[in-house]
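Handout, section B. The chain below has 501 residues.
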Amino acid sequence: MKAKRTAINPTREQDYPGWYQEVIKAADLAEHALVRGCMVIKPWGCALWENIQAELDKKIKATGHQNFYFPMFIPLSLMAKEAEHVDGFAKECAIVTHHRLEEDEEKGLVPAGKLEEPLVIRPTSEVVIGEAFSRWINSYRDLPLLGNQWANVVRWEMRTRLFLRTSEFLWQEGHTAHAAKDEAIQEAEKMLEVYRQLSEDFLAVPVILGEKTIHEKFPGADTTYCLESMMQDKKALQAGTSHFLGQNFSKAFNIKYLSKEGNEEYTWTTSWGVSTRLIGGLIMTHSDDNGLVLPPKIAPIQIVIIPLIHKAEDEEEILEFCRDLETKLKTKNYNNQNIRVEIDLKEKTPGEKTWGWVKKGVPIRVQVGKKELEKSSVYIGRRDLEPNEKSCVDKQDFIDQAETMLAEIQNNLFTKAQKFTDDNSFTADSREEFFKFFAPKAEKTGFVSAYWIGDDETEKELKKDLKVTARCIPLKSKEKLGKCIFTGKDNARLTVFARAY
């Protein structure tokens, strides 16, 4: 049987990591930077991040948070104040030790002007924001303090992959302080729900909401809540986290307030964040062997119009038809915004244009040539369907149906991804069944739920022998207890395991 031709080579089945890199290249999303492990985000990739940022920023502000911004440099002495936190990030920290360059006759430009104290380039901002909170908060009247920062962070990763794990990446990090413990826990849970809405309703990526195990939680947190999603290679991707920090950072940075009763108390704090990793998750959830597939809500262009001009004498009439179509489509409303439409006027062949937009993942492609002009119709291709599945539709009918069609594509992508997750999620009732499932050449793979007591020995064994980690304890089954399949001990919690990025 002749192999099916695809725009992306290798295909997912042939080489999933290679396929992922080729999708990014074909869609012109990003490229490797001159500095090892860093990336240049190109305009199409940047537009995706801007759309995520706009949607999430709106949701964050709707929950009462205000944006602020802190410097990327953190004094080393400040970083060292929270012991567990610094231990967790020590191996990933990038350090600035000098503040200027000088010319050396033999070596050329060399660092000079050694700093009195080294500066850590922020891997995260709990310490520098904690220090500020200790100055900003004096009374119960100052609480809750609800803040958020859009920034870049640096974590010196050894093994990097565009969007998924880079030495520098873009993110959002929320930081809050509260008078009451329960209020802080509710805050962390509330922001987890905001992230769920972003992931499922906007990106069409299904997630499991859960609590991290003790060894997987954020350094310095009492509790870490997370979103775990399944990629098409059946590995897990942590899509976001929300941390209840207890009073750990408050005690380290002396974040106190005077209560109504006149007592000096430590605040309860939270932090939470998502990053450009979401774009990597988006790619691996929806894309196919012809390139990127974008849910309409995030697509920078939702409908692209491609004029098919074979004779110069037809050009003006076809373009006028396309401009009228563009104008009318832009008056239509989808997701509380005007539909984003563009006419492709680049000097390329119709085939080059069509496949270019297929690889960029635009939800709807519209072709207009002399035949369509004569019938007052348009030729439609949808990115959630095969590229050769096209239909001829009356122009006005398409204008009337455009909003419904975009909503249908958004829903189809989520439904397909949710079915894939469900079909590849299993339960293991014994140690033997668990190990068989994750064996190197096992017939099935994916997510496995099993009762586990949380012991160190089992966790180390699973990581070493199977490359499997405990992803989370799902919130929906958090109260379920059973017998640990590894140790036989009672009161084990139902935990989701998987290989992960």
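Note. The first strand starts at residue 30 and ends at 32. Compare this with the example in section A.
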